């Protein structure tokens, strides 16, 4: 491979990785501009190394035909390691907070950038450029479409431990009704009931539909303030 070809592929990797990473950086995501560039360039380098190794093996066999049966070149081995290995980096961008999961889109963009980098290293310029355009469009424009048409109410499971007094279940259901939260199911976990001399402690599992404008942490805060509720957690 000529030096000019190497420069072109690395430059294209920087441009594509930077374009996708800039959008993530603009939205203050864990993996941004530099991370996406490094992932794309790294994948491109691995792909080019694979081509060098393949060409070296072919030249070696041509010079020594007797080695044809003992030397094998696995074209996809390094690519496979990149695709699987990028999962560890993507996992670092995923955050679970109060029952909600954040960072999945950033993790997916890192994985996609790695795949595009492999394509660049192999010399598939049209595929790389068209794929990067599709990714940028998905990240920039489809977010508005998703927010307007696809964002729906969230199904959440709440586990509550409380003192069974003053009709606590009724108070909880009235709170959900006031907040426009629909109750899909209430499961009473009888085998976990605890008793002492003065009080009866019960545990229930509420399956609720939460409107998208309501924050989960606010629900936890409101319910925790109820007199008689011992513990509230999102499963």
TrEMBL record:
The chain crosses the membrane at residues 6-23, 35-52, 110-142. Keywords: Cell membrane, Membrane, Transmembrane, Transmembrane helix. InterPro entries: MgtC/SapB/SrpB/YhiD_fam, MgtC_SapB_SrpB_YhiD_N. It holds the Pfam family MgtC. The keyword Transport does not apply. It comes from the Bacteria. Its main location: membrane. Residues 10-147 form the MgtC/SapB/SrpB/YhiD N-terminal domain. It is found in: Cell membrane. GO terms for cellular component: plasma membrane. It is a multi-pass membrane protein. Belongs to the MgtC/SapB family. This is Putative Mg(2+) transport ATPase. The lineage of its organism: Bacteria, Bacillati, Bacillota, Clostridia, Eubacteriales.
